[in-house]
Amino acid sequence: MKTEYVFLTEETAENSGEIRRAGEIIKSGGLVAFPTETVYGLGGDALNPASSAKIYAAKGRPSDNPLIVHIADLKDAEFIAEDIPDAFFKLADALWPGPLTMIVKKSGAVPYETTGGLDTVAIRFPSNRIAQALIRAGGGFIAAPSANRSGRPSPTMAQYCREDLDGLVEMIIDGGQVGIGVESTIVDLTEGEPTLLRPGYVTPGMLKEILGGLSVDPTIYGNETSARPKAPGMRYRHYAPSGELTIVEGSTENVVSYINEAVLEAKKAGKKTGVICAEETAPLYGADRVFITGKRGDEEAAARELFRILRMSDDEHLEVIYAEAFGSEGLGLALMNRMIKAAGHRIVRV
Ligand code: AMP
Ligand code: MG
């Protein structure tokens, strides 16, 4: 298949010919990669089982890993969900449109092909206006996982969708680099107390303030490998660069000296080395490649850059990579969750 590329901005998307064409592709069962505020999504008609099957095939993703259904009007949630709890409307009121996905009981309108066989459905109302325009043009319900081949970092720019999906989807919409850079926060509202299944830009603190209480699935801290994650997708290895990534946590001084020794040793063994670090410590490292996530403590910048850095480390064939750890509060929790997965749980405390 020949993939069509189009460029749109949030200002020009609505009512454009490109969006109309993209909507037609979705409605006729095809796939369109498109920007959202979190990462690029690989969209198909959520109510069409054949579209969901195509998404799984294009991604190379196991079909028991459920897809998130994207809507562009809160009222549409009632068509795809049943027994919606108050917490859903409270969170929607405060945080939608935005980077939050909520899991509720599904209605008969949603095929099991979209939910990976589950009786529940994950719903998100994105704030990106290109995404909203596409959802409306495509019939209102777009199933979309991240627009990467399974196991690669989520794409934060259209060129990465092209790298992974050229020839596998009808259209890729280039809307520039995304603003957030890590996937949406996921909250399960189907059993007892709302439970955080995946950390993201919406932090546990923000959710607690709105809901009063919140349980946190312990597996999101990344270090309890024996527990079975509740969110099906959390079982799968993710975002792994082809080099060996290790996260180093501790005081700045200890981290810098540990990484420098480890880099020196790897270089002696003939390995190509990389370091992922803050701007302030970057000049202290002697690796072949030093990636800067932003100023120390600027977690928003780090979120925007992380997946791009992981892709670049593959492009540059780095074999041994060390990364400074982030704090585990606020957005740091989401960053550490993604990094620990990328590192296959290799984390050193010094
Ligand atoms: P993404 O990888 O960004 O496409 O997000 C999809 C992830 O959302 C899945 O891997 C699951 O972890 C989660 N998810 C989607 N639907 C459900 C559901 N019905 N129940 C639990 N988790 C879900
Ligand atoms: Mg993904």
Give an overview of the whole structure:
The protein has 350 residues and is α/β, with parallel strands linked by helices. The chain is built from eleven helices and 17 strands. The strands form two sheets. Strands 1, 2, 3, 4, 5, 6, 7, 8, 9, 10, 11 and 12 form a twelve-stranded mixed β-sheet that branches. α1 crosses α6. The longest helix is centred in the last third of the chain and has 17 residues. It is globular and about 60 Å long. The relative contact order is 0.15. The mean pLDDT is 94. Bound molecules: adenosine monophosphate (AMP) and magnesium ion (MG). Adenosine monophosphate binds next to β7. The site of adenosine monophosphate has 18 residues, from β7.
Give helix % range. Answer: 25-40%
H/E topology pattern: EHEEHEHEHEHEHEHEEEHEEHEEHEHE
How many helices? The count is 11
Cα radius of gyration in angstroms? 20 Å
Largest sheet: 12 strands, mixed
**Which class of secondary structure composition applies to the elements?**
alpha/beta
What binds here, in terms of ligands, is: adenosine monophosphate, magnesium ion
Q: How much of the residues is beta strand, in percent?
A: 15-25%
Task: List the uncertain runs.
Answer: none
Q: Compute the separation of the termini in Å.
A: 51 Å
Average pLDDT, rounded to a whole number, is 94
Global shape: globular
- Strands, total number: 17
